[in-house]
Amino acid sequence: MARNSESSTYSPSIGLIYVFNLIVGTGALTLPAAFANAGWIISLCVILALSAISYVTLTFVVESMAAANAILRSKRAKQLIKKECLQRPNSPQEDSDSSTSSASTKSLLGRVKVRKTRSLCNSPNLYSSVMQSEDDYPTCSIINENSDMVVIPHENNLEECDIQETIEMGKLASLFFNRVGTILFFVCITIYLYGDLAIYGAAIGKSLRDTACTYFPVDVPCNETLNGTVACWEGSDLTRDNAYRLFLSIFVLLIGAFGFFNVQKTLLLQILTGLVRWTAFIAMIILACVRLLSSPKDNQGNPPVANVNGLPNLFGACVYSFMCHHSLPSLVTPISPKRGLFKLLALDYILIAGFYLLLGFTGIFAFPHLEDLYTLNFVPNRCPSNPAGNFTASILDAVMPKEAVTAAQQALFYFLTLFPVFTLSTSFPIITITLRNNLKQLFLRQNEADYSFFVRRLLFPLMALIPPTVLAIITSDISFLVGITGSYAGAAVQYIIPALLAFYARKELQKEFPLEPVRNAFASPFRHTFFVLFVLLWACASIGFVTYNHVLADK
């Protein structure tokens, strides 16, 4: 938890872009296949409903962040003022000894003091005026050595509820939940991150395999996914499944090694990956639209109107695709000014929902068969027996001269199929480090320095890397991984935890400021307890429905 300096802040428009880029990631590439399986009308209804509920829980997280800022600043201020009052000089001889202490306390108070430019909490309470001026000492009307109750004269209104410190989800959980709740939080976030890494590994392994493996049997229809037992290259003993496992292992050995160190996703890297991401997404949408206009009807997609059997994976993919709650504090806190923050986030969600519908609907109507990772539908030369079945080639034939098609095909082939590799390679080490740190918080019960080098530096990175790698080796079915991760751990992180955080944050805020209610300017627009109960019931019903459908599918 760190206080944000002015130099680290950015404008609301930049914040909108950051949140947009955080939400729109690999999950978007799994939506077209999920749309095709569930049907277009169900997909439309589900994605609109889930985007709305995800926005509601996002406002719960913001409200909890504001409440946590107020509570932590109040506790610090009262502790510092209590200490200062107890150490006030009682005789002239102590003046010189106390001057250093007073100056130190004033410095600390200055660090916890918040802006006074506008009043967000117009209530006379225990934390009404930490400092009256740069030269005034805090005065104590009541002081008890064994009590936290320090009454401070009410002179200035401070912004108790302003979001100035980055308080991550783990800190929010430990602040508002009891020990059992905190452990359950870390279990949920850990399972989600394990699933996240497994999805990343599978996406990268499949992308590298489909880039490198060039053999396509003549007797296989163009609109079928190749079996894993097919040779990677003509005449080779290496199968596509083994090639996938080989590429996945090499990737984890090379990129996963960064999980043993501390790395950050710098602003430059964020900008570069953002440009690559949006170039790829826009290219896929344009190419799908061109294919819709140029290819014959019998070579286009014909998705069902509704298919209930496709709902579990659709639900998981949509939850996964709207996930940003676990990283929201680090993105929202630096936004300055925060006026109209909820409107800004609502605009983000409207744009993202529209983008997902555009990406998914162009895909399901343009292609008769959709891979679980959408980029793999743009692999050219995948069907030598039927040149018309080369999706990318047929698209390019319609928009450029024949002599330019080959070079453009290859450029587009490598760019689109390797797009997940470029973007996920930068995120994989960061997710690994986040998971490593969560595992430490979950299992270490004392100071980390008290443990051996093996435990501190080797055991937890290995615990973060090995399980998701094994899971990705066992199955390369990204739709399955996304469905399970999103439907269970994702639903807990996106629905249950934010709702409970908001509920308990409101109670803690009232407990911390007992004399008069504090008005939280960042309170969710959905502040009625009904919305908390609705989200919890929705999450339980959704998880139950998905589980029921998985059980039926197994039968």
UniProtKB/TrEMBL annotation:
Highest taxon of the lineage: Eukaryota
Membrane topology recorded in Swiss-Prot or TrEMBL: Multi-pass membrane protein
Sequence intervals crossing the membrane: 12-35, 41-72, 176-195, 243-263, 275-294, 314-332, 344-367, 411-433, 454-474, 480-505, 526-548
Main location: membrane
Database matches in InterPro entries: AA_transpt_TM
Region feature Disordered, mapped onto this chain: 86-106
Key words, A-Z: Glycoprotein, Membrane, Transmembrane, Transmembrane helix
Compartments where located: Membrane
GO cellular component: membrane
A Pfam family matched in the record: Aa_trans
Span of domain Amino acid transporter transmembrane: 14-65
The family this protein is said to belong to: Belongs to the TMEM104 family.
Name of the protein described by the UniProt record: Amino acid transporter transmembrane domain-containing protein
